Amino acid sequence: MKVKELMSKLEFKYSNEKEYLQAVREVLESIEETYNSHPEFEKARIIERIVEPDRVFTFKVPWQDDRGEIHINTGYRVQFNNALGPYKGGLRFHPSVTLSTLKFLGFEQTFKNALTTLPMGGAKGGSDFNPKGKSDAEVMRFCQAFMTELWRYIGPDTDVPAGDIGVGSREIGYLYGWYKKLARENTGVLTGKGINWGGSLIRPEATGFGGVYFVRHMLNKINSDLSGKTVAISGFGNVAWGAALKATELGAKVIAISGPDGYIYDKAGLNEEKLNFMLYLRATCNDVVSPYAEEFPEAVFVKAKKPWELKCDIALPCAIQNELDGQDAKQLIENGVTCIAEISNMGCTPEAVNMFIDNKILYAPGKAVNAGGVSVSGLEMTQNAMKLNWSAEEVDTKLKTIMNNIHEACVKYGNRPDGYTDYVKGANIAGFMKVAQAVLEQGLC
Ligand code: GLU
């Protein structure tokens, strides 16, 4: 395989799919050498088979708002690869959603799910619908219209969607209710369900908790830990909240969270009351973080800026793809950052990633760091299949083991002779090898 040749073919075919091409390039560049040492992969055209999704569904989603006006959105499900298990991955409802976004996310999900060691293939779906500012009734009508199309493509052993940006417990509830009505079955076809109707304990916290467990391993490897470290976080939703909660519990000081309107600098650090306020902010659905500074006057709201300009030990992007660019990386490095761990999917631009690696700063990509969310989704599927529930401690213990295994796999494939761990290479090779081997062993299908 020659990365250049394969990339130019993909660039020609999918010239307007920027995010998808970015994600593929990153993986190809880091696996090229390993891949080429396996002639059996090349012979079976494994890489060409893995970079293309198995299939993509696109559908119209018509729905009516509370004033009786009609809106049309586009819905998608990208079933990327099912070599390791049923297609698995979230649904994103956000105005920025395009096919390119969902193809990049489905591609990443395939390797992320492989890293978890659970039997899950990779998928992603969603819509350009924006749930922010919509009433519950509008969100319900949209979810029902979306599921009316989606339900025929999914199933507990076929494809199991979950949440992502804009799809939380409320949306999962409406989607699940409508699936049940159409399919006439009560199987755990979505994960992230309510605790009383098949959900798993720890699922809401899992992405953030898992991310911080991963950071703890990264720090331990350089004989350090979280205690007393300052942490800047972007976002203030579910993932950012879980990360802030666990980082605080483990002795770090979270000094920043952010929203689309700007960021909050809280020198004193978050505490229980402030963490609960994050939940309240999220529930109000206004998508702004500024009210935090009105509630807690010791905090400062910095309008239209990102938290990466702050001096901090650890930076945790928890919002959206490409939210931390080269300029931000330069600023963080100048301010002496020790560790950057992406809890959002592809949170850093390639330029930023290269700067961290060139400067030998601890950096780990989303597909390793944020795998805790889908891991607990996998555990939810297991509990549904067994028709019983595990305690929070049981789930958390399993999550810790999974994050430890992912970290070990990254170190195994990413350790360099100078002692620096290239987590990008490590995560990509570890995930890719599992998928590639499975595709090869299952023949041409
Ligand atoms: N959307 C989450 C992710 O990016 C979770 C997916 C899932 O639970 O299936 O991994």
Low-pLDDT regions: none
Question: Would you tell me which CATH topology of the largest domain applies?
Answer: Rossmann fold
Strand content: 15-25%
How much helix is in the residues? 40-55%
- Strand arrangement, largest sheet? 9-8-7-6-10-11-12
Structural class: alpha/beta
**Full CATH superfamily name of the largest domain:** Leucine Dehydrogenase, chain A, domain 1
Bound compounds, each kind once, are: glutamic acid
Description:
By secondary structure, the chain is of the alpha/beta class. The chain has two domains: 3-185, Leucine Dehydrogenase, chain A, domain 1 (Rossmann fold); 205-360, NAD(P)-binding Rossmann-like Domain (Rossmann fold, 3-Layer(aba) Sandwich), CATH 3.40.50. 49% of the residues lie in helices and 15% in strands. It contains 17 helices and twelve strands. The chain has helices at 3-13, 18-36, 39-43, 46-51, 99-115, 136-150, 169-183, 203-221, 238-249, 272-284, 291-295, 326-334, 350-358, 366-369, 371-386, 392-414, 423-441, and strands at 55-64, 70-81, 87-93, 122-127, 159-162, 230-233, 253-259, 262-265, 300-303, 314-316, 339-341, 362-364. Helix 9 (238-249) packs antiparallel against helix 10 (272-284). The model has no long low-confidence stretch (mean pLDDT 97). The site of glutamic acid has 11 residues, from strand 3 and helix 15. Glutamic acid binds at residues 88-90, 162, 164, 191, 345, 370, 373-374, 377.
